[in-house]
Amino acid sequence: MNETIRKFGHPATLIRDYAHWVVLLRPAQVTLGSLVLAAKSDATDFAALPAPAFAEMREVVSDIERALARAIEYQKINYLMLMMVDPHVHFHVIPRYEGSRSGAALTLADKGWPGPPDLATAAKIDSSEIAALATWLKGYWPRA
């Protein structure tokens, strides 16, 4: 695993492991169910990923959207590829919704709705909340 994946709390935040990608719970929840989709590669440029990673990305994104649609009932979903601080290829996956959503004993509002996500107001959750939210989301994940 590359350093970016470790920085986002792997293995405690792991939702699903794929051949070329991992889906992680984002420790700072912008909205309920915020994730990180991270390439396992050491690539720091999107175009440098191996071709099989691009092919697999379709399956991973489909799984993310199906799981979050069931768990969060989002209205939109944002994929942010920022890579300014954490250099390896990854996306912040932010489910968007009007109002708030609840799950795993957490209730979070989408403070940026209907504009861009408000990353500065992300809720930093502790290790027990990470474990509970990760377990809850895994229950919605499509089976392998």
What's this model, at a glance?
The chain has 144 residues and is of the alpha+beta class. The chain has three helices and nine strands; from the N terminus they run αββββαβββββα. It has one domain: HIT family, subunit A (2-Layer Sandwich), CATH 3.30.428.
Describe the fold and architecture.
- This protein is α+β, with helices and mostly antiparallel strands and 144 residues long.
- The chain has a single domain (3-138), classed as HIT-like (HIT family, subunit A, 2-Layer Sandwich).
- Helices cover 26% and strands 26% of the residues.
- It has helices spanning 3-7, 51-71, 127-138, and strands at residues 14-17, 21-25, 28-29, 35-39, 76-80, 90-96, 100-103, 106-109, 123-124.
- A five-stranded antiparallel sheet has the order 1-2-4-6-5.
- Strand 1 (14-17) and strand 2 form a beta hairpin.
- It is globular, with a radius of gyration of 14 Å.
- The relative contact order is 0.22.
- The mean pLDDT is 97.
